[in-house]
Amino acid sequence: MDIAYWIVAGPLATFYVYAGTLKVIRSRDQLRPMMAWVDHIPLPALRALGTVEMLGATGLVLPPLTGIAPSLVPAAAIGFVLLQTGAIAVHPRGEDRRIALNAGLTVTAAVTIWPATRL
Q1: CB neighbours (10 Å) of residue 24?
Q2: DSSP class of residue 95?
Q3: What is the pTM of this model?
Q4: What is the pLDDT of residues 20-32, one digit of tens each?
């Protein structure tokens, strides 16, 4: 079960560390080509979203590695499902109609929940 978890959670955590870091350190102008919706939310909210993504990725990786607070793993996965559900609702409101990535991340996070409960 550990191998199945890492096959799914490893790339998911890597994606969220990358995406979260971009949201925290880059300007709106730098993010706009990748994320057309950045003009529709305040900059502090964008920075907070990036921080939440990085913390969620940490919640997927550290508890299984350390054995400390394993209940955080399914909570992080559920949090990512909720985050992407919200993203799917927000993206069509702006110019960004591309939600395939969000749908894929939602499914991946949902699939991560089951092996996460077995750790």
Answers
A1: 15
A2: S
A3: 0.90
A4: 999 999 999 999 9
